[in-house]
Amino acid sequence: MGKKAENTRLLESMHQISLSVLDTPSDVDKLLDDLAEKVLLLGVFRSLMIALVDWSLEEVRVVRSFSRWNQKLGILDKIELVPHSLDLVYSLDDENITAVAAKSGRLQVIEEWDERLDSRVDKPSYRRGQMAYFIPIMHGGRSVAVLATASLLAEKEATLRRIERLQPLLDQVGMALVQARLFAEFNKSNEDLRKEIARRQEVEEELRLSESKWRLLSAHIPDFVAVIDADGCVLSANRPFDAAVGEEQVCESVCQCEGLGNGPLIKGWIDLVFGTGEDAHFEISTADSSDGVSREFSIIALGEESEKTRAIFIARDISLRKLGEQQLVRLDRLRVQSELTAGVSHNLNNILTGVLLPAQMLKRALKNEREIRDIDDVIKSAQRARDLVERLRRSTSQPQVEPLQSVCVKSAIEDAVLMTKPHWQDKAHRRGIDIELKLNISADIPPICGEENGLREIVASLLLNACDALPSGGRIAVEGHAVGDEVCICVSDTGVGIDAAIQPYIFDPFFTTKNIVGAGFGLSTLRAMIAQWNGRVEVKSASGAGAYFMLYLPVWDSAELVNATDVAGLDMRVLVVDDEELVCDSLRRVLVGVARVETAASGYEALEAFAPNRFDVALIDLAMPDMAGDRLARELRRLDSRIALVLLTGLEVPEGDMRRAPFDEFLQKPCSPEEIFASLTRMTELYRGSE
Question: Does 512 score more than 80 pLDDT?
Fold first, then answer.
């Protein structure tokens, strides 16, 4: 084709492209698509990449990339998208050739390969015999876009002339791009404005609904809610606020409302909120409140930052929450006390085991009446010490369901009377009053099915309550007799009685008529314990006419405890594992003639002495320094699956505790010889039954 014909074709192409650009002055995407399509279809270039320059972000982004060149055939073909080139982004400070052309505003020509080309889309092997041209499109002295195209080396001069002749068209494209961007920004601003107007309309509607909901909600919530000014004057308030301060005070300052507590303190916080513009949240305790109520306050400033003219004032009664927090603190203290008590109880129980077991075995061997009485005193004192340790443990631990046993009613009542004597006799005398206590227990009263310590504490608690009901003195009576298959224990007094209005609540948890909360056993605990024994409690009383508390408890009907003579012929082999030498020696003496006993002072020592089929039963302590008893039990069970395992500990290990899992039975220290014999009998039967 001659130069004249080529020039004519180029002019016609430029004219068509110019018309296309002028036809889409407001749509950037359509302008770019039309430009790429016309340039390629009219044969101006055989490939075209378009990148837009964003000076605000200082980057250039590839937005279009097409080609008509068929590399294999070496001819122009259909227009195809080059997807891997799209959305490539270069910083204007990059050394990439596209960024260089955009930043410099000058044509960049690359012959074959240059390191400034993007290796993600170009390779040196692709560029052999090829030229690349990066053409900035300028407007207002800086680039707005970059066009990139390619040609053969032989076409370099012709392509450069073509680029030069296209410059007027490119200037027109640059102007069109700027106008299209401005039009897009204008449309975006209009759309943003439309959305902002719609948003504000929605906000206004939400505010209207919110105000309506606020009025509805604030009228029914129990908190005191009001809108106040900088002086604390109430502008509007909800119903609870009006009811608390009185209708006549609604327009007064919240600082002067008697129903809100400490006025000067509230005024100080209001001044702080309006002075700083920041919200305030504070509490006024019962000590600082004029009406003895703990409250939580919030003052939330309203208005613009520079004009805080109003505030929402909220007052909330938190007395119950404070009481709950105090209860949590008390529970935490009880937890610490419980941990300390558990350690002390464990050590004392080990010591008492070394006293009770030998004393009880010694009693069996004595014949002299005086010596028997002396050893009985030792046993009784040790048992009382054991019971004291148990009460100490229970006072700081959660109630647990104890195994039911045969309980001598007469003995338990007499112990309770003796325990409370300082109250109904000594303390009463110091107060100058007389309290007479009468006992009437049937001689043939049968044992009950319950728990000895529990029955003693229940009777003692009722006696203490009776003493409190006799501020001027009077009479207390304790009676006990059999009623069919039950035993009735009645504790009565001639005191102030119980008002009929509060009788339905006396068994509720935490209910009390005393000033000191938590000082007594608690009737709710009393009734729960009796219910665990399948018993019941009844109350008869009237104000000023004394009170009658009647306990109905089931009669014990289980078999007698096992004696040493019952197990003497079993020929048991027993391993005792305890780090207390006193306990090991006591158990060895108790089991003389009953079992062949070996002892170990630690878990590792027990494992050294152990062999399969060597022992029938193992009595294992729980708390040992080198190896816990439950871990040792698991190891012994692994070595000999037929061995019977008994946990013998002074620690509290309630039902469900995972430390009980490896054991067949549990014995609480200190225990009697009969309890040990009974346990060994059951364990031996278990062992022999597995053979």
Answer: no
CA dist 341 and 48 (Å) reads 88
Average pLDDT on 203-229 reads 73
User: How many whole angstroms separate alpha carbon 382 and alpha carbon 356?
Assistant: 6
CATH topology of domain 3-183: Beta-Lactamase (3.30.450)
Element (H, E) at 177: helix 167-218
Question: pLDDT tens across 613-671, in order?
Answer: 899 899 999 988 889 999 999 999 999 988 999 999 888 888 888 999 999 999 888 88
Residues 6+ apart with CB under 8 A from 475: 435, 436, 437, 438, 493, 494
The answer to whether residues 579 and 625 touch, using CB atoms and an 8 Å cutoff, is yes
| Phi, psi at 3, each rounded to 5° | -65, -35
8 Å CB contact between 312 and 211: no
Return d(Cα 294, Cα 300) in angstroms, integer: 20
Distance of CA 519 to the CA centre of its chain: 32
CATH topology of domain 564-689: Rossmann fold (3.40.50)
Tokens of 458: 């229940």
Which tokens in the block code for residue 538? Answer: 């009844």
For 456-486, give one letter per residue: b (16+ CB within 10 A) or e: bbbbbbbbbbbbebbeeebbbbbbbeeeeeb
Reported as a single tens digit per residue, the pLDDT across 426-451 is: 888 888 889 899 999 998 899 998 88
100 pLDDT exceeds 90? yes
Percent of the chain with pLDDT over 70: 79
Could you give the CA distance from residue 234 to residue 190 in angstroms, rounded to a whole number? 44
The amino acid that residue 582 corresponds to is: L
Of 264, 261, 296, 263, whose CA–CA distance to 282 is shortest?
296
On the 0-12 / 13-18 / 19+ scale of CB atoms within 10 A, 585 is middle
Please answer whether residues 312 and 353 qualify as being in contact, where contact means their C-beta atoms are separated by less than 8 angstroms. Answer: no
Give the pLDDT of residue 457: 86
pTM beyond 0.70: the answer is no
Could you give the 3-state DSSP secondary structure of residue 55? coil
Span 399-558: which CATH code?
3.30.565.10
Phi and psi for 8 in degrees, rounded to 5?
-60, -45
With CA atoms as reference, report the closest residue to 388 among 460, 462, 318.
460
Domain ranges of the chain: 3-183, 219-317, 399-558, 564-689
What does the block give as tokens for 35? Answer: 């430009």
Mind listing the pLDDT tens digit for each residue in 175-201? 888 888 888 888 888 888 888 888 888
> CATH class for domain 219-317?
alpha beta
Instruction: Compute the residue count for the chain.
Output: 691
Q: What is the mean pLDDT of residues 13-25?
A: 63
Report the C-alpha gap between 76 and 665 in whole angstroms: 96
pLDDT of residue 398: 53
